[in-house]
Structures are given as C-alpha cells and as structure tokens.
Write a structure and sequence with these properties.
- The chain is α/β, with parallel strands linked by helices and 358 residues long.
- The chain folds into two domains: 185 residues, Rossmann fold (3-Layer(aba) Sandwich); 167 residues, 3-Layer(aba) Sandwich (Rossmann fold).
- The protein is built from 14 helices and 15 strands.
- The chain has a seven-stranded parallel sheet with strand order 3-2-1-4-5-6-7, with helices on both faces.
- Helix 1 packs across helix 14.
- The radius of gyration is 21 Å and the shape is globular.
Length: 358
C-alpha cells in the first residue's frame, strides 16, 4: 500500500507522539508498504530536529494549510491517508473529501477539552469551536482507528457509523532492552513518568501515596513541573529528562506506575505508551485503569486498581504488597511481546486500511 501519515506536530516537544509515529511507520515499512510522513508545523522552529525524517510543510493558515502539501498529495495519490484527529480546519476538510482518510482517535477530545475549559477562557473557546465543527471531520472520514475499545463505543464517535477498528498503542520491542536489575536496596523503588498539567496522569495521587508509605516505598517521578509544596522525603522529583537520563533511573527501579486519574476525563480504558516502555524495560506495572492490550489476559505482573478518586488510599496495602512481591521480578521480553510489539499489533491496522481503501 501507498500510505501517507499526516500529522500536525512539534517534534521538539511531545516525544511520546514522535516515538509512537516512528513505531507505527517502522512496522508498516517492515511489512513491505510505502510510507511517507507529512508533518505540518506552524513555526519554522518546530522542524528543528525532524526526528521522524518527515516531509515538513509550514501551515500558512487554517484555511489553505499549505499549497505544496496539497500538490504533493495530488502527485502521490496515496491509497490511505492516516491522520491523527485534530480540530476542524478547512484544508483538512478538503483532504478528507478527496482522499481515503482514516482518523486516529486517541482520546475523547470533547471531554478532555471540557476538563481544561473549567479554568481557562481560551480552552472554553476551543471546546465550543471543536464541538460545533468536529462533525465535518468525523462524518467525512473513510474510517476510524481508536486506541481503545471504549472509545469505539462512545457516541461522540460511534454515531457517525464509520468503519472502525480498536487497536491499542504499541512499540517496536526490538528497539528496547531490559534495564531492570536486581538491586540491594531494602525498600522497593517505584518509577513514574507524568505531568502535573495533565490531571488524568494522577501525579497528585503519587504524592499522596508516597506520604502514606514513607518507610515502605521510594518514588522517582520524571516529567512536569513540581506543583506540590511539601514533597515527602521518599520522593525525588527530576523534572523533564531525555531518554539517556531517565533510563538510568529505570535501571534502579523495581516497579512502574501508569496513570491513576483517567476518571477525571472520564475514561476507564487506556493504553499509554509510557506503560509499554516500562514493560519493555522489564518493570512490572501498577495501573489505575483497564489496559486495552490486557482485556482478555492479564498477567500476574500487572496490578490494576480501580479508576476512582480514592484508589491509592483504598488500595495502599495491595500496592505495597505488590511492590514487595515484584521487587526481584524482571519481566522477560518474550512475555511482553504479544501484548505490545508493533510488528504484531500493527498488522491488524494494515488489514483495516486495505478494507477501507479497496
């Protein structure tokens, strides 16, 4: 197949998205398909790194986008355009009407914007604009790929009656190696990567949990600005780190924690990339949601606690016991592979593209 991966993305900032796109494209190419990445940016500085080796197009306006982009599509005539869903823009509407386009749905955009809108006029305006125009995107696409089964059932998407596939996020496991090492530290070391600006990550809950487990667990928190005045003594806050630095921290950790507050969006099912990385590095995981990859088979190296406001308080003992039990457990790559490897999971997506395109 001839596929164009189209996204509006600043490669200098959200490395999670960048790594996800790389893993998808690498898997598709490995299967023998031709893939080109078209990256729309709004300022020249956003193309500084171009880790994705994408073809860069500067968006001139939300109306015309970029004429060179439209010309490139006209010459290429892709079988499928794969587009990360974003708010309506007239030039995207033109593309949707002209080409077979599959939208990737990563979240309930309306609920997420509504959460931000509670404290921001700018976000309120974004929410109302998106609410008024999103149907122009969703009703004119050729299909949707949701990252969870829950999203595929939400009326915000299902009402459009489009072909739909639910397939979780994945990573190329061959690019990872086991980092976890058995250490001599008496207290289990817990790793968390999150952001205070994203309430659903639940960083505040990690702090609360640490306060209750001062002599039982030690927490290493990477990412986001610290917004807590009294950090417990069993917590180290690192701020943003690059991969070389945060992997050194993972080497001495025993367990990874995923997001704990998806109920604030509200969603109950998820498949965060950071958790797939934890597993690839050999860490057992604690999650506060149901992971799409483990809906039908949940290994004993996962502790799933309820997706509620008081989950860390109510399941404190279970969390401590799990960390102690998993302290010397290193998850083999072969056990992780069927659940998170892109070279396995992305095959289903390609089959879906073929059905939509032909």
């Amino acid at each position: 197949m001839n596929i164009v991966y189209l996204l509006s993305h600043d490669q200098n900032r959200n490395l999670g998205i960048t790594r996800k796109v790389m893993s998808q494209v690498d898997a598709w190419k490995e299967m023998g398909h031709t893939v080109r990445i078209f990256n729309l940016i709004v300022t020249e500085s956003q193309s500084k790194t171009n880790i994705l080796n994408a073809e860069i197009f500067l968006r001139k306006s939300i109306f015309i986008g970029n004429k060179e982009l439209l010309k490139a599509l006209e010459l290429l005539r892709p079988d499928i355009i794969y587009l990360r869903f974003e708010p309506f823009k007239p030039f995207l509407y033109t593309i949707l009407k002209k080409y077979k386009t599959v939208l990737e749905i990563n979240t309930d955009d309306l609920q997420e914007q509504l959460l931000h809108a509670k404290n921001s006029l700018v976000w309120k305006l974004r929410y109302w604009f998106n609410k008024a125009t999103r149907s122009l995107m969703l009703s004119n696409c050729s299909g949707m790929v949701t990252v969870t089964e829950e999203l595929s059932r939400i009326p915000n998407f299902s009402r459009y009656k489009k072909p739909m596939l639910a397939v979780p996020n994945s990573i190329v496991l061959s690019k990872f190696s086991t980092l976890k090492k058995r250490n001599n530290l008496k207290i289990p070391q817990v790793y968390f990567m999150g952001n205070f600006n994203r309430k659903w990550h639940g960083v505040d809950k990690i702090i609360r949990l640490a306060s209750m487990c001062k002599d039982q667990l030690y927490f290493h928190i990477v990412g986001g600005a610290c917004e807590v005045d009294n950090i417990p003594p069993n917590v180290t806050m690192y701020g943003y780190l690059d991969k070389d630095d945060y992997t050194k921290i993972i080497e001495k950790c025993d367990v990874g924690i995923g997001s704990l507050s998806f109920h604030t969006i509200p969603l109950w099912e998820a498949c965060p990339l950071k958790v797939r990385e934890y597993l690839a590095y050999g860490l057992p995981i604690i999650i506060g949601y149901t992971d799409t990859a483990f809906l039908r088979n949940k290994p004993d190296w996962i502790l799933e606690i309820p997706n509620t406001e008081n989950n860390v308080e109510e399941y404190r003992n279970e969390i401590v016991e799990f960390c102690i039990r998993m302290k010397d457990v290193v998850i083999p790559i072969k056990e992780v592979k069927p659940f998170v490897d892109s070279n396995i999971i992305e095959k289903e997506k390609i089959h879906f593209f073929e059905k939509v395109a032909y």
